[in-house]
Design a protein that fits this description.
Length: 351
């Protein structure tokens, strides 16, 4: 065991593994998702807003799932967040963020669009520990287009005819609805000064207000709250090598999604002036009550930029339709470091 992976780091690694193990109790989830959930921090937990190295951050995520079957999903997310320091608050900081999500699937172009404002507060508990609480308030739109859909009643015995009635009741139905969406979360962050070792553990609840999402106004259907529990840890093993572990467990009524991942990061160049270069290779597994997908991933860290690419290999029963193909996913992150006056360096050093 070398000087970078001492007894203290070993204990932290054991705690992280125990957290991942005991969090795999039965859990259920739906909503949009990313295999690289750790690179979509404002979607992961509102309390992660402003918790990063730097002062401003731009994040983009793109996912194309099951593109070779008729009911493929296309998901895009864009986010911006920043730290806000106040005079006299040397041990704390605010985080402010803006989040945009768009998701579309199926022949009916069923879509979800939402814009949310995130606000978080982070307080330093000790030299190495930080606790954050965050909220998110957004407006969302669900819509679909039924012009490209057919039903059994439109089959005349030989072919489908759009001139025949669909048999679907459309009285009182809206093809587009809007609703407010409220979420909140907690995040604990641990970091070793002047080292790359750090740990994040968090819990968040989404759709706290359980908004109605039915297209028929006289038949309200509430969107169930979703809870996620996550952990992310980076351990500096050597001067130029880190091991990274990640876990996500979330549930929403009768649906669940669990992800476990591990990766190794090699620092090819590491300087104090942010002239950095690192490459990371990893793999993750997503599973529910059955195995779902196997996802190899690669990352490039270059100065203020991060590029992440993963590909889901479907291993569920649905592989008969997908031929084991799940879909590619791309994550891009860019950070801005503001030039601070000398007294400002005493501010809360998150990351």
């Amino acid at each position: 065991m070398n000087k970078y992976f001492n007894q203290r780091n070993y204990q932290l690694f054991v705690l992280f593994c125990l957290f991942a193990l005991f969090s795999t109790t039965e859990s259920r989830a739906q909503d949009i998702h990313f295999s690289q959930f750790y690179h979509s921090p404002l979607n992961l937990n509102p309390a992660r807003t402003g918790v990063f190295q730097g002062d401003q951050r731009f994040v983009g995520n793109y996912r194309n799932q099951w593109g070779n079957v008729p009911t493929g999903y296309t998901t895009f997310s864009g986010a911006y967040d920043m730290k806000v320091f106040r005079e006299g608050m040397d041990n704390s900081a605010f985080g402010l963020g803006l989040l945009f999500n768009y998701d579309q699937a199926g022949d009916g172009n069923l879509s979800l669009t939402n814009i949310a404002l995130n606000l978080a507060y982070t307080h330093r508990l000790s030299q190495k520990s930080f606790l954050s609480v965050g909220t998110s308030l957004g407006v969302a739109n669900r819509a679909f287009d039924d012009s490209g859909l057919t039903t059994n009643t439109q089959f005349n015995g030989e072919l489908f005819s759009s001139a025949l009635p669909t048999g679907e009741e459309d009285t009182g139905r809206d093809n587009s609805i809007f609703y407010l969406d409220f979420s909140a979360g907690l995040n604990y962050h641990y970091q070793v000064p002047r080292k790359r070792t750090r740990i994040d553990l968090g819990v968040a609840m989404f759709h706290i207000n359980s908004p109605s999402v039915n297209f028929y106004a006289n038949q309200p259907i509430d969107l169930a709250s979703r809870i996620n529990i996550f952990g992310e840890a980076t351990f500096m093993l050597k001067q130029r090598f880190d091991i990274v572990g990640r876990a996500l467990f979330q549930f929403q009524q009768d649906y669940n999604e669990n992800l476990l991942g591990i990766a190794g990061r090699l620092h090819l160049k590491k300087n104090e002036n942010l002239d950095d270069l690192a490459i990371q290779l990893g793999v993750s597994m997503r599973f529910n009550s059955f195995n779902d997908a196997f996802s190899p991933n690669v990352e490039l860290h270059y100065n203020r930029w991060l590029f992440g690419l993963s590909y889901d290999i479907n291993v569920s029963e649905f592989q008969r339709a997908t031929n084991r193909q799940g879909g590619p996913e791309l994550a891009i992150m860019y950070r801005i470091f503001n030039l601070k006056s000398l007294p400002a360096f005493k501010q809360c050093p998150i990351y």
